[in-house]
Structures are given as C-alpha cells and as structure tokens.
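Board notes (copied after class):
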Amino acid sequence: MSHSLPRHAGGFLLVRELGRGGMGVVYEAHESASGRTVALKVLAAELALSPETFERFKREARLAAAISDSRCVFVYGAHEIEGSPAISMELVGGETLQERIALGEEIPIATVVRWTLDLIDGLEAAHRSGILHRDVKPSNCFLTVDGRVKVGDFGLSRSLERDIQLTQAGQFLGSPLYASPEQVRGREVDERSDQYSCAATLYALLTGSPPFTGTNVGEVLARILSEAPVPPRSIRAAIPEELERVVLKALEREPARRFKDLGALRAALEPFGGATATRASIPRRLVARGIDFAVIAMLNSAITIPFLDDIFQSGGPAMDKPGLAVSTLIQLAAIAITIAYFGLLESLWGASLGKWLMGLRVTNLSGERPRARAILRSFAYEAPTVILTLLLLGETANNMTVWPAIGGILITALLCSTMRKRNGWRMLHEFASGTRTIQVNLPFRTQRGIPAPTAQEPAVRSDLPATLGRYRIEGLLLDSRSGRVLAARDAQLERSVWIQLHETGSAVDEARRALARPAKLRWLEALDAAPCTADVFEAPGGAALESRAQQGVRFEWSFAERALSQLGDELEACGFANTSVSQLWIDRDWNLRVLDEPLSGLDAKPRTPLELLGEAARLLVSRDGRSLPQDLPLRSEEVVRRLIGIDSQFETFAQARSALLELRTRPSTITGRQRAAQIAVGAVLPMVGALILIIGSGIQAKMMAQLTECKILILELQELHAAGLGPIAERPALDAQDVGRRQLALAWTLGQGLGPLLSDGLIRGRPEAQPVIEAARAAFPNPDETAVQAALLQLRAERGPPKGGDAAVEFTAAHPFMVIGLGAAAGWTFWGCIFAVCFPGGLTLRLFGFSVRARSGRRASRALGLLRTLLAGLPFVA
C-alpha cells in the first residue's frame, strides 16, 4: 500500500495519518459520497492475511457499530481500502487524554473527574449494549472541542452474552499499563475489569503516570499482580483523601473488593466534579445545626450529671461560691466538646453528622476538604461564647441568667453579619477560617436500571423490496411528510438502520449529513433506490412520544425531566426552528430524539420552541393537562406547572430553558439517603431530644422532689399561722420536738437543698411564710442531714398523700422517665399536627423538597397530612 498522502482510495481522500496501532493505521479522510470528514481505520495489509486478525477486526466494527451514545465514538460504516478492510468512524476534533498527559502539566482535579464521568457514561452505554471494552486507556479516550470525552477503539471488545475465543488460551491482549489483574491472568472478566481500567486512567490523569510502570511488559504485569499502587497523594498532595480512597478502591486486585458497578463509582466521584456544588441554603444549615447540637447535648449530659450535687447543694450569689464555679467549668467543657466535635469530623470527612444528613459539605475555597482549617473554623465559631463566659465570671446569679441570653443574641448577629447571597451565605467564622459550606447535589441523572421502551414493530409489506444495497428490508416502520421510512438490517455491521425514501423532494443536504448532535439521528449514507432517492440513518429503537402518550403510558419523572432538558438543548442548538410534536421520539435508551420530518397520523402542526416544550411536558407528565405525576419532586413542581399551563406560563423560551437547566443541579428522584435524612429530622430527632431529656432527668427529678417537699413544709407553716400560733419562736406551748422537727426540715430543705435561686423564688411567692423561713434558717444553719431526712419522712406520713397539683408534682418526681417519654411523644405528635396544617405534608418534607401526593398526582390536602401525622404519632404515644 502506498504511503504518500494525500491520496484517493476506496471512495475516500486520505488526508493525513492520525495514528498507528497494533491492528492498523487511522487516517483523517474525506468521504467522497457523503462529503463528511471521518476517522478511517484501515487494517494493516500484513494482518489482513491472518484469518484470526481479520475476524477480530470485523468483530470490532460490528460491536462498535452497535453502540449509539454521545459519549462513544460513532461508527458510520465498513469499507475496503486498497484490498484491506476498514472502518469509518466519527472524527473527534480534539486530542486524546494520553496526549494531554504527555504535556506534563497538572490537570485541575475537577476537570479530571468530569472527564472520568464522561468515560463512565460511555462505558455504561457499551455495557447496556452487551459489550465490554477491555482496552480502556488514555489513548482510547478522545477530547472533543467542547471539553467532553468520548470513548473509542473497541478493538478488544467482547460481547457480554457470548464468549468468542479468537485468541490462544492464556494469551494476554490489551494495554498492560491499564489492564486489570484478572485480564492479565487470562481469567473471565466482567464490567469490573473496565472499572479497573477506568480507575487506572483516572490515576494517570491525576498523577501524570499509570499506577504501575516498569522497564518491560513482564515487570509491569508482575507488579499489577503482586503490588498495591502508590497512593496518588504521595505524588500529588493536592488530591483529596476521599478521592484517593475512591481511586484505590476501584484499583483493588480482587474484583469483589471494587465498587459493585460503574454507577457506584460514578456516585463516589460526583462530589469531586466541581460543577455539582452549590451554595447551601439557610434552612438546611439551620436543621443541620439543630441535629449537631442534639448530639452535642447528649455528650454534654455525660459530663454534667456527675456534678449535679455540686451545682444544687452549693450556691450563693457570688462567683466565689462552689456551685457557680462548677457551672462555669461545665460551660467551658461543653464549648470544648463542641469545638472538638465540629473540628474533628469536618477535618476528617468534610461534614459533621447534621451536615452529612442534610447533604452539606465544608470545603476550603478551592473546593477541597478543609483539613486543619476545620479546627480553626470551629474555634472561630465558639470564640465569642468563650469570651462571654470568661467575662461573666464575677457576675451575680441573676446576671448569670440574663446576660448569656443577651450575649447569645449578639453573638449570633455578629456571626451572621457577613452572610450575603453573592458570597454563598458565608458566616464570619467561615471568612476567618477560609472555608465555606456547600450543598452537594447529585448531577442530572439518566434513566438507568429499567427495561428499554417497547420498540415500534415494522409492518411487513409485499410491495417493499427485499434488499436495498447491502441492507435487508424488514418492513415499513412509519410514514413521513416526504415518504416512507423502512426498517432494515445492515448485513456487514449487523445493526438495525432506518431507510428514508424520498418520493418527493430531495435527499438531505450536506449540513444535515455532518450533523452529530445527540438529539438527531446520525446520517449514514445515501442510496439509489430508483425511482426515488433514499438516505440511511441509525435506528434509534423505541417509538414516537405522542403515540406512547395516546396509549396511556405513564413516564417516570426522572425520564420526563431528562427528556425536557434534551429537547431544550436541541431547540437551542437548531436555532429555534419550528418543530411539531410528531417529530419527538423516545429511543431504546430513554433519550429524546427529534426526527427531521413530522410523522403521518400524528400532530404535525409546527410549534414555536416554547409551545413545543409545553406540549412535550403535557405528554410526558400530565394526561389531562391538570394532573401531575406522583413522583414529581416539590422543587420541580413550579416549573412543570408553568410549562403545562396550570400556572402562568413562561414568557420566553429562554426563561423556560433556564428553569430546566436549574433542575439539572437537583436530584430528579428521592434517594435512600435523602429519605433517611428526612426521617431522621422528622421522627428520629424528636426521639433524640427525648433521650437527652431522659439522660438529664436526674436534674429534673432532684428539683421536683425538693419542690414537693418545700410545698409540703410551706403548707404546714400556713396551717400553723391559720391556727393563730404565730411565729415558731413565740410558740412555747407547741411541742418542742414538733417545732424542732419542722424547723430542721424547713431549714435544710429551703436553705441548703435547693440553693438560693429556687428557695428565694418560693419565699417571694409566699410573703406570709418569709419571716418563718428566715427564723428557721437562723436557728438551724448547719443541720444534721440524717435527722433532716427522718423529719421529712415523718412530715409526709402525718400529712398523707398530696392532692391535686401536689400529686402531679410528686408523680413527676417519682416517675421522670415515664413523664418525659410521654411528653416527648405527645409533643412530637402535637407539633407534627401543627406543621402538617401549616405546611401540607409536614415541615421536614417541605424542607427537603418532598411532597405528599394522591394517586391523581395532586398534592395531598392539609387534612390528609394531618391524618398521616396522627397515624405516625399515636403509636409512639401509646
């Protein structure tokens, strides 16, 4: 074969050589018949003589042609060039990832992750078609001019459904630098082998070199089988630790220890893609803070209970008293626990428990884990509280009650003083520490894991030819404005195609032939089908959107959202040309395609882009133009209602397009994590609050018991006064033992047992008892505790069981756990009912963007929300 360029061969003008591989040469070529520029892969002449290599080359063409996805290089056809087989493919107008790595420049981490996500999309498309790539490497990944990645070169691909042995047993094929251990061993491989090679490519993009290198192939293969890869952070320190763990997990030698599939690997990589991070909303931050402080309160309870006696049995208005000193130390210890809680969790994992549940993450200004800055951030948040506590060391008891409340308000105002929408609601302590809080949302999800839509079956017609060129005609698929569309089969590539017969008008123009937008069908070639012309397109499978809607098919919201977004992309890309509803088509992979012409028997009325978006939305989400899908997220409802005309419609296509783009940054379906977080906030959190109360019940039980005894003793004094006996000191006729007993009990309980704050409050509430209480305190400044307890027991026996409110107080003191548990359950139910009435469905559902819907898709009424809350709360109360 002559190697001079440019030259004509087999209907192509070979312009320049793009690269050489083990099986042949790739040229940039201009196809004379179609006028398009392609990448032409020609099998080397010496290899064409080998039946084994020739068969493998043909199989590559067939398998690659079976994949039709925007993230994979598209195969146009099979050819013969100067006696050698060849494949014409989409020419990607960029460079390979290997060429980018060879530049030796560090690639931004977010860019690397986005490229890897594109690579995963392409591999998943191949896997859905039943194909393993088996040779994923940077040189097989192509960068487009818009910075996206396409996967190409399926030369070692193998069908997942059958194992065609084209090599000798145990022979290794592939690129050793990126091959999986099981592939090196010659064992059976599955999708996890492509996952390993994908992670090895990611490793090379991050560090500049593959995970394993060596002076020869044998050394490389030996290291793959026996060594662990060098941690990428030891090569590039800026790589987040979490990202390093993801990469190393996908590079595990044993497939079972890797991610279960590429979807799981994608979910682990998405937080590092950069574009998915948005500013955290204030309500989510507030709820996250509430969850965190519930946890901190439990930790603080553990250090508070051992010091209860010091707090309640000591006292005095000045700070030199032991009780208030211990109280101040406990406050400082609680602040230290708070600093440690937030600082350690956010430095290690980037989120505290509350932030993790609410989908929030703390990062530095570069979007990476804050590390030591998290400690600084936590200390900066608590520093004003520490200063206030120290300033109040010498204050009186009353000031210790008032000033913390006032100071807390001032501190909160200070911390929030810097919050602005334009800076992502960053608080003062975030500016001080160089950190921020972001909302981590999953990116726009495709419809995966569900059966493909039923394909429209072609009608067998006797008036159709059996073949056209190399295509075998299977039947009439549909009618378009210019002619019939036939379903056919490519005998060479073994793939289905559509053949558009042009009974009137001309064939597609050169611009349409070169069109490669995701929503448009790929044009393959033109045919001479006298007496008419014909064009061959890829066969998308599936059926017309309008016909599916007429059949009563209900679409999941995740698909509807994706389809509307794809339609918006296409309408913007095509220059806002008017299109009819009958041109909308759902392909086998749940993508929305826009056909070139309206279909007969369907709505062929041209519509403006805005009208078409609205009509498509009605077909996708609403049968009658009023109802909504049951799985419609609350955050998407406003957009849908405006699109289908329930509320005031968008004024321009640009407004509707912008709203659809905004939906891409939000999850289209409720994930298990989101639902778990909502349940935690809506149900578990109040129970945690109850647990906190139970842990602190020693405080309340002690207080209630003392209050009960005080009320009993004061009632005794009131009865004595009512009998006209006068003050205790002026009642010599009264039995001295009774006087002593009462004075002893009263003095200890009111003077020592409660401390000054509670006892002073009781005295002020009963002025008639004040002189008696003061006399008792003076008479017995240091009573014997054993004698006091005996006196209290005798007084209770003489009075009998308390009645009315006193009985309730005593019951609470005796059964704190029961009362607190009942109060928590009843309180949760009560407030749940209030929120259900104010916010249909409940406050936490509204906070998370969820909605409760009836079977019709309409949002549930307040009455139904109230019933749901009662049904959920009554079992807890019971």
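Comment from the instructor: The longest strand covers residues 12-20. The two ends are 88 Å apart (CA to CA).
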